Amino acid sequence: MRIDVGAGGNFVFNPANVTAPNGTLITFFFPSGDIPHSVTQGDFSNPCQPIAAQGGQNGFDSGLQNSVQWTLNVTNDQEPIYFFCKSPTHCGLGMVGSVNAPSTGNTFDAWQAAAVKVGASEQTLQDNGPVTGGIGAVATASPAATSGGSSGTSGALQLGASSALTVILGVVGGAMMLVA
Ligand SMILES: [Cu+2]
């Protein structure tokens, strides 16, 4: 399952709410560019702030990133999982998402409305870098570079192939220079 971060250059996750049973891998694709984004686990009752640790377990946090992909594994589909972007002002502009949010009560729409209500009062957060683990969904690795997320896994493979080609050409070029 794929979620695009900052899709279309907007302060959104797309899709912003997904239904994902246990074992679902959700891969977030971060765009290239000057504006970093994050996928930071939040708490419905305290929008635009990282969720408090539960039983010694912190919420997941990608850290502020560009041009990476990052995967969460859903481990508790019985509770909704809320997340937001901690890049300054983004959450208050409504850059939030959810996994398995209910259709009534604490819905995605209610979560986003609560974030927008925080708006300009949003507190700037420190970037403490990637946090693996998570509550109800866990990251097992830090973000990894992509080609910018425009073409997903195949793009990453293409980038790998072209990088290898560049290395080969570089070696050939170096050899030629030595011969010359
Ligand atoms: Cu953002």
UniProtKB/TrEMBL annotation:
SUPFAM superfamilies associated with the record:
Cupredoxins
InterPro entries for this protein: BlueCu_1, Cupredoxin, Ser-rich/MCO-related
Entry keyword Cell membrane: no
Extract one GO molecular function annotation from the record. Answer: copper ion binding
Keywords attached to this Swiss-Prot or TrEMBL record, sorted alphabetically, are: Copper, Metal-binding
Q: Does the keyword Signal apply?
A: no
Which positions fall inside the Blue (type 1) copper domain?
7-99
Q: Tell me what this protein is called.
A: Blue (type 1) copper domain-containing protein
Which source organism? Answer: Ganoderma sinense ZZ0214-1
